[in-house]
Amino acid sequence: MEMQQALQSLMNVEENRVCADCQNEQLRVTHVSVNNSAFICSPCAELHAQDLTPLISLVRPLNSDFWSHEQISTLRAGGGNREFSMFMSKYELATPKVELNRKYNSVSCQYWRDKLHQIQNGLIPQTEMPTKMQGVVQMDRDVEGDWCLVDKSSVMV
Ligand SMILES: [Zn+2]
Fold first, then answer.
1. What are phi and psi of 141, to 5 degrees?
2. How far is ligand 1, taken at its centre, from the CA of residue 129, in Å?
3. Separation CA 106–CA 48 (nearest Å)
4. How far apart are CA 156 and CA 113, in angstroms?
């Protein structure tokens, strides 16, 4: 119940009622990308499921009855669409024109996810924000299949 209340209070935030991706006010927000703390509509949720791995975007329907403490605290660490879009707009990746792949596979978005993960684990993020140039770089898979930066020299520890 406590989880549901925490989720409900996030869903009541005005910015979380308009999809973080397409920003189409005619579409209802039905899903959330948990690890990005981004509230999205059904069509965008489908695109996430199709084009992005769960490591990049873990999508859940908002009407689900089961939420883990970890998921809810990740959502709260991010704060939702306002904070997410404010961060991504620093890299000009927040507007609906930006392809989802480009937005979510970017170094800046990975930094955002790492930051939420750290906050959720009670850590204070120590790494510096990527610069505007670093932030728009796309991540690629390394030999082990993990996501990594294309340019290893800008790896943030
Ligand atoms: Zn949408």
1. -90, 140
2. 27
3. 14
4. 13
Show the tokens assigned to 94: 């927040």
- pLDDT tens per residue across span 15-65: 999 999 999 999 999 999 999 999 999 999 999 999 999 999 999 999 999
Q: What are phi and psi of 45, to 5 degrees?
A: -60, -40
Please state whether the predicted TM-score (pTM) of the whole model is above 0.85: yes
Domain, as residue range, for 107: 2-154
User: Helix axis angle, 107-120 relative to 69-78, nearest 10°?
Assistant: 120
Find residue 143's DSSP bridge partners.
none
What single-letter DSSP state applies at residue 137? Answer: P
Cα(89) to ligand 1 centroid in Å equals 17
Per the structure, how many domains does the chain have? 1
Q: What is the CATH number of the domain that holds 69?
A: 1.10.220.150
What is the whole-number distance in angstroms between the Cα of residue 2 and the centre of ligand 1?
28
- Percentage of the chain surpassing pLDDT 90? 79
